[in-house]
Design a protein that fits this description.
206 residues; alpha/beta; globular
Length: 206
């Protein structure tokens, strides 16, 4: 939703309701990442008419402080960055689940995917960033395919039910290869909302 038209947000919310599967909400604090996006007023406004699950991606420091409030706002999937948690990663996962949400851990492209291997049986999904967190409209990093494949191989090896989400530079041109590599959830912003026919772009990705 970072790429949505915030002057006509209801229109773009309805686009997702009718054609996509989830609302991906990029929450940036200007500290963990250099950009600031939006906060609870926007999340709560979307939740009033959302008919698909809301998936909040926290690009913030101290994510544990806001878990309960995101749950109260109607978020069903909540991910935070491993880089923002480090030693407290499992505690935050447990807190998210205790608040009734699916728990995800996100990593930037410069963090080895192996860092998340110890958590694969305890999370619902992992979010592999295919650009660096902080801005929409970035170019897809080609090395991301191999990262998804490595993560999927380890998920299978462990017998985990964890799913892989990929975010950043996703479009119809790379969605099939990402799905073949093991990605289950593809997050697309600019390639959808800035397309001449957003519905057709979503269908092309499917």
């Amino acid at each position: 939703m970072l790429s949505a038209d915030f002057l006509h947000l209801e229109k773009d919310v309805n686009l997702v309701n009718e054609h996509a599967d989830i609302f991906h909400l990029d929450i940036m604090d200007g500290t963990f990442v250099p950009n600031i996006s939006y906060g609870f007023p926007i999340v709560e406004a979307i939740s009033k008419i959302a008919r698909k699950p809301m998936d909040a991606h926290l690009m913030i420091v101290n994510p544990e402080k806001y878990v309960a409030r995101f749950a109260k706002a109607g978020v069903e999937m909540l991910s935070f960055h491993y880089e923002a948690a480090q030693e407290g990663t499992q505690e935050i996962v447990d807190l998210i689940r205790a608040n009734g949400m699916k728990a995800g851990i996100a990593i930037n492209p410069d963090i080895p995917v192996q860092r998340l291997f110890p958590y694969l049986k305890n999370v619902d999904y992992v979010l592999i960033m295919s650009v660096f967190a902080g801005y929409g409209g970035q170019k897809f990093i080609e090395e991301s395919y191999g990262r998804v494949e490595a993560m999927k191989s380890e998920i299978i090896r462990q017998g985990s039910t964890c799913e892989i989400e990929v975010d950043g530079g996703i479009s119809p041109s790379n969605s099939k290869r990402l799905a073949d590599a093991g990605a289950k959830i593809l997050v697309a912003g600019s390639s959808i909302f800035k397309a001449d026919k957003p519905e057709a772009a979503i269908e092309a990705m499917r």
